[in-house]
Design goal:
Elements lengths: L22 E4 L1 H6 L2 H38 L5 H26 L4 H28 L3 E4 L16 H7 L4 H4 L35
Parallel strand pairs: 1-2
Helix pairs in contact: 2-3, 2-4, 4-5
Length: 209
């Protein structure tokens, strides 16, 4: 995503040490890629972005034509006429800059539209991850998507497909496994006590964003 980045770290119980806790991870990039609702939302964002960018470019093209016409006719204009044309050009340039800021600036239209479309999906994913964590008895679930500090993760601890199952995405649609609900013990045991597991740093972002 440049989307807004999803980094989920669920700490359900902090009373005992991390070494004795069960943990797993998910890949939110993989989860998002397999959600039709996210793909639809992204297409809509791309559509409005292209539309608004075209609108801004048309404004600047119109300004360029005004400037060219003014330069060609400048010697024929009176001082007052020159001032009027220059003021018109300056006003349209200001309007174009303001439109660009309104559409693509911080808290602009594109940002607001992204919040409307993507935030509900992020909330659904978070809730599904929480359900998987609680159902599987996991104290911690990391996100191995980009911008995380997980350099390697054993696939047997990956619960991304379980999250997708909770979100209603079948294994047929994604080519993954539909195993869910409870762990059988195979590949899901807590990490051995003598192996250290470093949790993500606070700078990498925790909880929902």
């Amino acid at each position: 995503m440049t989307r807004t980045t999803l980094v989920f770290i669920l700490f359900i119980s902090l009373s005992s040490g991390l070494f004795a806790q069960r943990y797993a991870y998910v890949d939110t990039d993989y989860i998002l890629k397999n959600l039709s609702s996210y793909n639809t939302a992204q297409k809509e964002l791309d559509r409005v972005s292209i539309q608004w960018q075209s609108e801004i470019e048309q404004r600047y093209e119109s300004i360029d034509r005004l400037i060219a016409a003014y330069q060609a006719e400048k010697v024929l204009l009176t001082e007052d006429m020159r001032k009027e044309r220059e003021d018109e050009i300056a006003r349209k340039q200001t309007e174009a800059k303001e439109l660009k800021r309104q559409r693509f600036g911080v808290d602009g239209d594109l940002f607001q539209r992204r919040q409307e479309l993507i935030q509900p999906i992020q909330d659904e994913i978070y809730n599904a991850i929480k359900e998987v964590a609680q159902g599987g008895g996991f104290s911690v679930i990391f996100d191995k998507a980009k911008e995380s500090n997980i350099l390697y993760a054993d696939p047997k601890y990956d619960r991304s497909d379980r999250v997708l199952t909770r979100l209603g995405v079948s294994s047929k649609d994604r080519g993954g496994s539909d195993d869910d609900d409870t762990d059988t013990g195979t590949g899901n045991e807590a990490e051995p006590q003598n192996e250290k597991v470093s949790p993500p740093s606070r700078d990498s972002g925790g909880g929902r964003k």
